[in-house]
Amino acid sequence: MEEQKEPEQFSIERLIAIPRGVMHEYNIPLRDRQGHIKLAITDSAGIVDGTMIAEKSVQPLSHYNGTAFVEMNFMLEGNISQTYDGLLTKHHYNKGYHNILFNPYSTETNQLMTTGRHRIFSIHLLPERMADLLRDYLPEFHSLANKIEKGERFVMHAPANSMDHRLKYLLHTFWDSPLQSGLGKLYFDSRILELFSRQFEILAGPIKKIPEIGKADLERLYYVKELILNNLETPPSLKSLSDQSGLTELKLKKQFKMVFNQSIYGFLCDERLRRARQMILEGEKNISTIAYELGYAHPQHFHRAFKKQFGVTPKSLLR
C-alpha cells in the first residue's frame, strides 16, 4: 500500500474550509514524528498552533505559501531552523524567539534541530488588515505598512529574551475561548489585537521622550489632517492650514511630523495615492480621470508616483 503523504502537505490555505470563530484540533500522522495542530480563523486572520514531537533525527518539511499573509511567529518550545526562499536561510528559532514576517508566494522549509517537543504559535493576518492596523495605531511603523502594500518581503526579529511574562500569558491563555459559539470570532480577533499590541510594543523598543503637545494643539493637528483628507483634489496651502488651525506655519510643520511621523506634504502624497488605488479597484473611473481628480497635472507623473509607492503600475490593478 502506498504511503499516505497528504498530511505533510497541510498548509495555511486549508484554513479557508474551516468555520470561522471555532477552534479545531488535529493529529497529523507523519512518517518520522508525531504532529498535533490547533487551528482557528476569523474574517481577517488564521491562527496556527503546531506541536511536533521527534524521538530521533527527522527530515525537514517544506510547503509552498500560496496565499499572502503577514505572520506573527512565537517559538514556545524546542528549536527549529527555518528557511524562506529569498528571505531567511536556516534561521534558528529558539524557545522564546518571535518575529513579524512577510514573504508571500514562497517556499517555507522547517527543520527540527533536536529531538523532543517543539511548539510554534503563529498568527497569519491578511496584508491589508496588518497595513490598516499599522497605519491606524502605529505611525512609527508606517514604512512597514508601505512595504506590505507594495508586496515587499521583510522580517523583523524581536530582541533576544524579549518574550516577557505578559506575552507568555497572552500566548498560553489564547485558547481559553468562550463557550457561546457566536462569540468565537470576536474573541479570537480581540486576542489577536492583544498579541499585536504587545509584540509591537516590544519591537518599538523603549519609548522616546518627545516634547509634550497640549490637548488644544493636538486637536488642531487632527483638524489639519481632516482638512487635507477632505481636500485631496485641491489641498489647502500651508498658509491656509496655518490660518484655519491657529498654529503658526513653523509649529504646524514641526508638530504634524511629530504626531503623524511624516511631513504634511508626504502625508498628502501618500493619501492621494491610497485614494487613487481604492478608486482604481472600484473600477468606476478610468486611470487618467482619477489622476486628474486627485490633482496630478500629468498622467505620467501619477504613474511614476504610483509605481514608486506600491511597486506596481496603476494598470496592473485592472488585470
Structural overview:
GO terms for molecular function: DNA-binding transcription factor activity; sequence-specific DNA binding. Keywords: DNA-binding, Transcription, Transcription regulation. The chain is of the alpha+beta class and 319 residues long. The protein folds into two domains: 6-204, Jelly Rolls, CATH 2.60.120.10; 215-318, Homeodomain-like (Arc Repressor Mutant, subunit A, Orthogonal Bundle). 38% of the residues lie in helices and 23% in strands. The strands form two sheets. The chain has a seven-stranded antiparallel beta sheet. Strands 4-9-6-7 form a four-stranded antiparallel beta sheet, with no helix packed on it. A hairpin with a 4-residue loop joins β1 (24-29) and β2 (34-41). The model is unreliable at 1-12 (pLDDT under 50).
Question: How would the blueprint of this fold be written?
Answer:
Elements: E1 24-29, E2 34-41, E3 45-54, E4 61-65, E5 70-77, E6 80-84, E7 88-93, E8 98-102, E9 106-112, E10 116-125, H1 127-137, H2 142-150, E11 154-157, H3 165-172, H4 184-204, H5 215-229, H6 238-245, H7 249-260, H8 264-282, H9 287-293, H10 299-310
Antiparallel strand pairs: 1-2, 2-3, 3-10, 4-9, 5-8, 5-10, 6-7, 6-9, 8-11
Organism: Chitinophaga ginsengisoli
Domain HTH araC/xylS-type: 222-319
Protein name: AraC-like DNA-binding protein
CATH class of the largest domain, anyone? Mainly Beta
Radius of gyration: 23 Å
Tally the helices: 10
What name goes with the CATH superfamily of the largest domain?
Jelly Rolls
Number of domains: 2
What's the average pLDDT?
85
Reported for the largest beta sheet, the result is:
7 strands, antiparallel
Shape: elongated
- Spatial sequence of strands, sheet with the most strands: 1-2-3-10-5-8-11
Instruction: Fill in the CATH topology of the largest domain.
Output: Jelly Rolls
First-to-last CA distance: 45 Å
Low-confidence segments: 1-12
Number of DSSP-assigned strands: 11
CATH architecture classification of the largest domain:
Sandwich
What percentage of amino acids are in beta strands?
15-25%
Structural class: alpha+beta
- Helix fraction, binned, reads 25-40%
Order of helices and strands: EEEEEEEEEEHHEHHHHHHHH
